[in-house]
Design brief:
Helix content: 25-40%
Order of helices and strands: EHEHHEEEEEHEEHEHEEEEEEH
Bound molecules: N-(4-carboxy-4-oxobutanoyl)-L-cysteinylglycine
Low-confidence stretches: none
Structural class: alpha/beta
Number of strands: 16
CATH superfamily: Carbon-nitrogen hydrolase
CATH topology: Nitrilase/N-carbamoyl-D-aminoacid amidohydrolase
CATH architecture: 4-Layer Sandwich
Length: about 280
């Protein structure tokens, strides 16, 4: 199986972002990818609440979603849209940060709302309050494909290993971790977290990322870490896409999942542990 990771540098203008994303999806398909993955917030990196209120749409009216579904059908590929920022109709006005698995007919096969919100002060100057704008999801999701099961997660979820344990035990062969990681935490934690989840799950980890300085029309400027990554079930880094926008394709030997789990069957060795709660 051949997978393609899109590394994007989106702005807070969905209309401007879409043509770039579509041409990179076409490029991945032309390089033979049968599963193409895009990063977190493929449609719009958040700058201010008022800007989001203006440009974000409900799922059934979102043009990025409909155009990417068409693209999956046109190219005959599976597409993991890392996430879209979408209106929800919730009373408190918060948005959803939602991944979609699209099949080669363009149909939606799975949806996942990011569970863990990035409410973190990463440095004296840099604080994130994701839960101010986004409503967290509640449910883990596995999507079925002909080449294996995908466990859907997003960005900050990577720091919560029990979610990945659950997905691995549900049979996930590939864990998807689309991201818009902060440069500071990215440099310190991104690669070891991805490799740890791959090793302890005996699964591929595919992590398409946002990169660079993002153009925003208002609010504070944003920058993200890049370094989209593919990690094999044994823990080896297959791809590190660096820090500029790009399309990176790679072959995945899906039998590596069973091989890794046979060599170290730790998924079968969980025990319930007594002691402090
Ligand atoms: O806000 C948007 O538009 C897109 N979403 C993000 O950028 C999200 C929430 S602020 N970022 C992360 O989860 C970074 C996690 C991270 O950097 C870490 O775990 O260290």
């Amino acid at each position: 199986m051949r997978a393609g990771l899109l590394q994007l540098n989106v702005s807070d203008d969905p209309e401007a972002n879409l043509p770039v994303t579509l041409s990179m999806v076409a490029e991945a398909a032309s390089e033979g990818a049968t599963l193409v993955l895009t990063p977190e917030v493929t449609n719009c990196l958040s700058s201010s609440r008022s800007r989001q209120q203006e440009v974000l749409r409900y799922e059934d009216q979102d043009e990025t979603l409909s155009a990417l579904r068409d693209a999956a059908a046109r190219h005959g590929i599976w597409l993991l849209i890392g996430s879209l920022a979408l209106k929800t109709g919730d009373a408190d006005g918060r948005f959803a940060n939602r991944s979609f698995l699209i099949d080669p007919a363009g149909d939606i096969r799975a949806r996942y709302d990011k569970i863990h919100m990035f409410d973190v002060q990463v440095s004296a100057e840099e604080t994130y309050r994701e839960s101010d704008g986004f409503r967290p999801g509640e449910e883990a999701v596995v999507g079925d494909t002909p080449f294996g099961k995908l466990g859907l997660t997003i960005c900050y979820d990577i720091r919560f290993p029990h979610l990945y344990r659950r997905l691995a035990r549900a049979g996930a062969d590939i864990l998807t971790v689309p991201a818009a990681f902060s440069p500071v935490t990215g440099a310190a934690h991104w690669e070891p977290l991805l490799r740890a989840r791959a090793i302890e799950s005996g699964a591929f980890v595919l992590a398409p990322a946002q990169c660079g300085s993002h153009a925003t029309s208002r609010g504070r400027p944003r920058a993200t870490y890049g370094h989209s990554m593919a990690v094999a079930p044994w823990g080896d880094v297959l791809v590190d896409a660096g820090d500029a926008p790009c399309v990176t394709c790679m072959d995945l030997n899906m039998t590596d999942v069973a091989t890794a789990r046979r060599r170290v069957p730790s998924l079968l060795h969980d025990r319930s542990i007594a002691g402090p709660p």
